[in-house]
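Incident log, structure service

09:12 report received: a user says their structure output differs between two submissions of the same chain.
09:20 pulled the input from the user's history:
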Amino acid sequence: MERLSYFIRRLLLVIPTFLGITFLVFGLTQFIPGGPVEQQLAAIRGFGGGESGGGATGGVSISEDQRKAIEKEFGFDKPFLERYWTWLIPDAMGMKAFSYKYNNKTVWELIEERFPISLTFGISGFVLTYLICVPLGIAKALRNGSGFDVVSSVVVLVLYAIPAFAFGMVLKTFFCGTTDHFFDILPIGGFRSENWEELSAWGKVSDQAEHMFLPVFCYVIGNFAVLTILMKNSLLDQIAQDYVRTVLAKGGTMRRAVWRHALRNALIPIVTGISGILTIMFAGSMLIERVFSINGIGLLTLDAIIGRDYMVFMGVLALTSILGLIGRVLSDFCYVLVDPRISFGGEG
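09:34 re-ran on a clean worker, output below:
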């Protein structure tokens, strides 16, 4: 009952936390210079200046009525609190609002288009990260101080030191035929080939794998070192505990002590990453998607930031915030599954 009460309180805290995040960021987007109103005014001045032969700074004046009309078009004629309320409730967290850049599409339509792409890359990267890093961390802990541990640590840390997007650019140079000096065995970018629908079943699988290989590899590299080292250190810490020495003193083998006892406790810090499973569709790196020309959520968000498309940015932020906050509750739930001894009775 204590645990149920704790999880209910945590879920209820999601609401004010979400409102606080979105209210703060929405306020920043409304008052930062360079928004849609300023861009529209600059476009009018530039167009008018060009017509008069004076260039973009040709001195085209904007009347107060014109300015007010533009502010009304984008909703900036209303008080700030009213704008936030409109975004939150009537526009369903901005999902029903129209993008400033893509005039004929709502925010939800844009997210819905990119969702399958980011979800595919997110799930692949998430699963592969755990499938590689957790066993590697266990192997390093069991062979602590050996040549394998030292060499693998050097490789892991070197890869971690290289930014994932920079590593992606290097891989493109070597394997995507961008120069005549290296290989041309993988697509230079995109999610699928243009003739994907015409391919056979095996051809579709092969084409998808080729397009995903380098981006997913870069995604895994970006999360590689932290999870591997965390798994290793967590298991080493458990092996040093008294209960492991007790198992050994009673005649049990190290293998039994590790696999039957220590490993379960060592996984407790690892389950914090499970909360990310709800946000994997937004987890793709913006820069990785830019490097490989992948039209996912990350690239949509980056374009929204650069182009001051605040409605799109706020829509992605809203979904990411909700899923991230719920994911933290899921992380606590995973703690309980891994170690039922955990009690939340001392919480507020």
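09:41 both user submissions now match this output. Likely a transient worker issue. Closing.
09:42 reviewer note: Residues 2-80 form one domain. The radius of gyration is 26 Å.
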